[in-house]
């Protein structure tokens, strides 16, 4: 597995956008695949915010992705920047792909001078991120879901 910038592999955008909307659409009910495509296509720079990283297998097919964003949800703008949209394809789960993507995203944020990075997740996933060094920061209601905002100090991870 290797991790690369989505901007260098744009042929994966459509499939990735569809997977993101399916996985995260409950948090943004009016979000469409076309909007997700536009967002991902706007991630044109490496080592910048916003950007998206892909985990790729030996054949170049995508296994998962993670984004580094300035804002992840309009109702929680007070926290920034964000690790967002961590997604690992079902056939690649349990192989460390997600942990590798999270570690790389945190390292990229640290290289950009970010001191604290945030993410939000459901309570069911908070334990996963805690094992990776994230700590609980706040609880927030986003529509019908109660989510946990978590944070990590980037300087501690590099």
UniProtKB/TrEMBL annotation:
One cellular component term (GO) for this entry is: cytoplasm
Domain N-acetyltransferase span(s) in chain numbering: 11-155
One Pfam match: Acetyltransf_1
Q: Which GO terms describe its molecular function?
A: acetyl-CoA binding; N-acetyltransferase activity
Cite the entry's keywords alphabetically.
Transferase
| PROSITE patterns (alphabetical) | GNAT
Keyword Hydrolase recorded: no
Domain of life, per lineage:
Bacteria
Kindly provide the name given to this protein in its UniProt entry.
Acetyltransferase
Tell me the classification of the organism that encodes this protein: Bacteria, Pseudomonadati, Pseudomonadota, Gammaproteobacteria, Lysobacterales
């Amino acid at each position: 597995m290797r991790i690369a910038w989505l901007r260098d592999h744009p042929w994966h955008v459509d499939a990735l956008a569809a997977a993101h909307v399916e996985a995260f659409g409950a948090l943004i009910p009016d979000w469409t695949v076309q909007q997700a495509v536009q967002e991902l296509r706007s991630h044109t720079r490496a080592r910048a915010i916003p950007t998206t990283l892909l985990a790729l297998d030996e054949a170049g097919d995508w296994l998962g992705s993670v984004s580094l964003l300035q804002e992840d949800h309009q109702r929680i703008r007070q926290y920034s920047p964000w690790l967002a949209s961590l997604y690992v394809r079902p056939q690649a789960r349990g192989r460390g792909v997600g942990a590798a993507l999270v570690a790389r995203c945190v390292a990229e944020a640290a290289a950009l001078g970010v001191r604290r990075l945030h993410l939000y997740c459901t309570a069911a996933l908070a334990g996963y991120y805690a094992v990776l060094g994230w700590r609980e920061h706040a609880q927030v209601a986003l529509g019908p879901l109660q989510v946990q905002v978590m944070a990590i100090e980037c300087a501690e991870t590099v």
